[in-house]
Amino acid sequence: xxxxxxxxxxxxxxxxxxxxxxxxxxTYIPELLKRPGYLWAAHYAAVEKKDVRIHTDDSSVPAGTxxxxxxxxxxxxxxxxxxxxxxxxxxxxxxxxMLAMRIGERVNIMTEAGRVEGPExxxxxxxxxxxxxxxxxxxxxxxxxxxxxLAWYAxxxxxxxxxxxxxxxxxxxxxxxxxxxxxxxxxxxxxLEARNQYFIAHQDRPDMKPWLxxxxxxxxxxxxxxxxxxxxxxxxxx
Length: 238
Fold this sequence. Notes:
By secondary structure, the chain is of the alpha+beta class. The protein contains 7 helices and 9 strands. It has a single domain (4-233), classed as Alpha-Beta Plaits. An 8-stranded antiparallel β-barrel has the order 1-3-2-9-5-7-6-4. The model has no long low-confidence stretch (mean pLDDT 93).
């Protein structure tokens, strides 16, 4: 199983962006996927959306939001030998130059704590690879309320993926071993349109209303969270 996830959020300057993306998709990602234990990779461009969440005001937290790069591995420890910073330090000079273009780079390495499949999982041909559209929340919660949060996800939020129509493939609950955000929630959808359809139905469920109020009170999100994004690598076939 792909229980480990290395997530990077970042921005890019306009100048040199195309060269960076070509390098990332044609050199960087394929080379990393040759490493033992690395199972898949996916690169996304974020889509703007309305958000009422509370975000951190800690200026030390890098604030990149435009791109999301994710690698999956058998377990989170696969990303610990070497850790990302050491892996990058060993790359050729040209690759290090490309990595230096990233602005506001923020990293989490997470392990999967739970998973529920949605109605579209049976027909999804991508296997364990991430879907064409994702929504990824990354946040912290006061420890005094984490048991309440765990109960809500396990009993209500995650089971809803299996019964709510609208193109849902999977939902994964993540816990961090590296990075500012301690918690993550990763939704996968067949398309952006399907995601929008899903959340209209999802938020209208009577059992969701208490959660929406609770989120606004207790969860502090990373910059840009929750991130809504379309996959740009591998390319999505029409």
